[in-house]
Amino acid sequence: MKLLHFISLCLALFTLLACRRSNLFEPAEESAIKNPIFGPSGEVAIAIEVSASHTDHYRAWYVETNGFIKYVDALQFDGQATAALAQQELSNLVALFLEKDFLHLQDSYESALTPSRLRYRVVFNHGGMQKIVHTDSVSAPASLQEILQRLLAQMASLRDNTLLLSLIADRDTLVQGQAAKLTFTVTNPHAHALALVSSDHLVDFFVAASQPVSDAEFGGSYAPPYLWQAVEKTTSIRTVNITNLSAGQSLVFQASWNGRSDNGVLLEGDFRVAARCATIPGGYSAWLPIHISKGP
What's the rounded Cα separation, in Å, for the pair 257 and 228? Predict the structure, then answer.
């Protein structure tokens, strides 16, 4: 009986420990595992753009209805960063906009007397209604100032976890029949480690027409269709994976493009090539131009 009692206690303790730690991931990673967001929903919920007159200062942060984030910072990096916002955080932001009655603010609070100030464009879509407010850093009323501060804090937090993405090609001009070697480097430039959440899809390279795709929404220039695409996948059988990237560490991916479209057509003219890190956080490299001339 004593032996059976001891075995029962051991089983109970094992069950308790299993419930308290069901896997080996940290809490933040567990959240990402349970609710992975790898792509846009196609509908922007909240957006902010920051610019300054007569400078290259431009930042933009868009969060879509599913929590997918697109972010650019012209002074910090080329290309576009992507990330994800937890549903509760997104709900809290929506609640703030409603609490501050953003939908009934004026369309503009800009002053001609402050031309050198930072300018903001804030977008809010809710319940079938869209409101866009333009303001500078001084003229915004207190309720709008609170919204600005919250969104700027979100941007700062994202910037602290943004990957550095670099794409290079061994040539920018091809003669039909030649191939370009593409090298995509994903670097953690921060002093802390980053956990990259992904499906089995890690990286892809793609080629598009030379002119950006016409799209009213931010980031439209990276939208398909692509003339050619190559996908780098993991060998894991998991549906969601974690890649830990330590401070300063880089991952390097390579592909070769022979100047043909996905359906085998030999192309001629001007094109653009880019690469995407399909993790969260992740992002897109800057576009590289490639010209293909007709062979002899």
Answer: 8
Is the distance from CB of 49 to CB of 59 less than 8 angstroms? yes
| Interstrand relation of 201-209 and 173-175 (parallel, antiparallel or unpaired) | unpaired
Query: CA 164 to CA 177: how far, in whole Å?
Result: 32
Beta bridge partners of 198: 241
pLDDT tens digits, 60-102: 999 999 999 999 988 888 889 999 998 899 999 999 999 999 9
Distance CA 294, CA 20 (A): 64
Cis peptide before 281 (omega within 30 of 0): yes
CB-based burial label for 28 (10 Å; 0-12, 13-18, 19+) = exposed
Secondary structure class of 92 (helix, strand, coil): helix
170: which DSSP letter? S
Strand (E) or helix (H) holding 14: helix 2-20
* Cα–Cα distance, 15 to 32 (Å, whole number): 24
Closest to 155 (Cα-Cα) out of 54, 282, 70, 56: 70
Q: How distant is the alpha carbon of residue 125 from its chain centre?
A: 20
Cα distance between residue 182 and residue 288, in whole Å: 10
- The answer to whether 254 and 183 have CB atoms below 8 angstroms apart is yes
The answer to whether the beta carbons of residues 100 and 122 sit under 8 Å apart is: no
Give phi and psi for 14, each to the nearest 5.
-60, -45
The tokens describing 243, both together, are 């890649």
- The contacts of residue 241 (CB under 8 Å, 6+ apart) are 197, 198, 199, 200, 234
Give the tens place of pLDDT for each residue, 149-203.
Answer: 999 999 999 888 999 999 999 999 999 989 999 999 999 999 999 999 988 788 9
